[in-house]
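Quick one, probably user error.
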């Protein structure tokens, strides 16, 4: 979502989007005031570095990582074509990983962020930074159909500042697909826990001819229902119920991005026109856009698949994969299962059989806190009850379950989107049975839930230890 090319309209949209909730991407900031004169040095608007590419290919796909671009994927084409689909206008493009956490702004070693991007916070980028410094490749391996690369990314808004994390990527060609595993190991000196952010896991920038942004947004996934061709040109997130989105050309061929159990994707366009090559500014963008809570010492893994071909090819591949869960089945054995927080903290990494959450607001000037699930796709008739296995240490006597539907722009707290249930605050584990069947608002499609404390008791030491949230009791 970073690029050195930014129109005034896009900048206004970006700054205007900096309010935060469980479905927005950035913390609240002061109103934007333009500088009286440009103060940021401008990077060159040309090819950022000379390519140094390692290629692998089969009879369907040709791919290369670029060792002068942090080992990110800088070349991708169908085997019968010599035209690179990946946009390399600057070191914020490519096909790569980019992560986000606080504080906002983020300054370190006497370096302040470039003004336009000051609210990105801690933002390690696999390929490099705003000033076109490339990230450093630590090591790499090349096989017949595989690549491995280990990278120290750079902080995007800062001048040549290595991030305090290491990214590793394993890439494998499988027929007409590219399977990627990503692992980021964080080692920050700043031990504060910041609110979750949406991440780019990954971001995909393709050249202007791949301008058609296509996905499925309907409520009957995996039935070959009609797709939606998106026309938005600002940074828009979409609830996509088949776990994929795609960028296609006029002939209907291109790249699909599939991530298991991911329902939140983002699309955008940069520049103008539908003609351009890899070093031109015009490009189109998609990413897997889920929230993630990043700890100062955490290890974060995700996988995704790129499918090359037609829309039929993309859906055929996705339909061949296991379906996502259709009922809650969250058991917090060694990770957060995609859950994240707003205005509340947990014990941090590593996760050991439970989420230990401080059951009180981190900032008492904000109205409430939320413990949020990832996006989901549930039919209420399949989930008549939810079982919460938790131990509360609190003076509060009630907890609240809140839910969203696809048409809701955010959690709309109100009688038709919530249910309260009694809790006992003695610190002992219990299974709380929440009956939702018959509730007037438990209808349609449910795409997210959260837990909160409606009484806002703020006594010191108040906590919730959460072991599971499931559709059946956990023994």
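Nope, works fine. Designed sequence:
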């Amino acid at each position: 979502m970073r690029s050195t090319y930014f129109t005034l309209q896009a900048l206004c949209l970006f700054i205007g989007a900096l309010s935060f909730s469980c479905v927005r991407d950035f913390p609240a900031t002061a109103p934007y005031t333009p500088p009286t004169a440009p103060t940021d040095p401008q990077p060159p608007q040309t090819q950022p570095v000379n390519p140094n590419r390692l290629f692998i290919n089969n009879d369907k796909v040709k791919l290369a990582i670029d060792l002068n671009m942090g080992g990110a994927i800088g070349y991708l084409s169908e085997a019968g074509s010599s035209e690179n689909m990946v946009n390399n206008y600057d070191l914020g493009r490519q096909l790569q990983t980019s992560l986000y956490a606080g504080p906002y702004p983020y300054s370190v070693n006497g370096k302040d962020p470039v003004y336009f991007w000051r609210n990105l916070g801690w933002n390690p980028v696999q390929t490099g930074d705003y000033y076109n410094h490339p990230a450093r490749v630590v090591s790499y391996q090349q096989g017949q159909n595989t690549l491995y690369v280990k990278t120290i990314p750079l902080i995007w808004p800062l001048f040549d500042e290595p991030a305090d994390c290491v990214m590793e990527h394993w890439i494998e060609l499988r027929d007409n697909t590219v399977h990627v595993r990503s692992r980021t190991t964080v080692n920050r000196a700043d031990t504060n826990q910041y609110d979750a952010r949406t991440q780019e896991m990954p971001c995909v920038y393709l050249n202007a001819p791949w301008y058609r942004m296509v996905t499925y947004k309907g409520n009957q996934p995996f039935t070959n229902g009609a797709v939606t061709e998106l026309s938005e040109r600002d940074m828009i997130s979409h609830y996509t119920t088949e776990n994929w989105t795609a960028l296609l050309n006029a002939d209907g061929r291109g790249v699909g991005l599939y991530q298991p159990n991911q329902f939140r994707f983002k699309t955008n366009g940069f520049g103008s026109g539908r003609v351009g090559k890899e070093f031109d500014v015009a490009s189109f963008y998609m990413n897997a856009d889920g929230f993630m809570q990043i700890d100062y010492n955490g290890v974060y893994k995700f996988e995704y698949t790129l499918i090359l071909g037609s829309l039929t090819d993309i859906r055929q591949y996705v339909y061949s994969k296991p379906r996502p869960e259709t009922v809650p089945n969250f058991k917090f054995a060694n990770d957060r299962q995609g859950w994240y927080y707003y205005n509340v903290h947990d014990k941090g990494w590593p996760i050991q059989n439970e989420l230990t959450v401080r059951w009180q607001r981190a900032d008492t000037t904000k109205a409430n806190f939320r413990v949020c699930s990832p996006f989901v796709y549930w039919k209420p008739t399949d989930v008549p009850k939810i079982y919460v296995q938790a131990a509360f240490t609190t003076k509060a006597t009630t907890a609240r379950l809140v839910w969203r539907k696809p048409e809701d722009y955010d959690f709309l707290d109100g009688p038709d989107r919530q249910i309260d249930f009694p809790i006992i605050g003695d610190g002992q584990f219990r299974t709380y049975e929440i009956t939702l069947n018959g509730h007037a608002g438990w209808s349609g499609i449910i795409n997210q839930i959260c837990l909160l404390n409606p009484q806002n008791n703020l006594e010191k030491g108040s906590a919730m230890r959460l072991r599971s949230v499931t559709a059946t009791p956990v023994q």
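The two ends are 44 Å apart (CA to CA).
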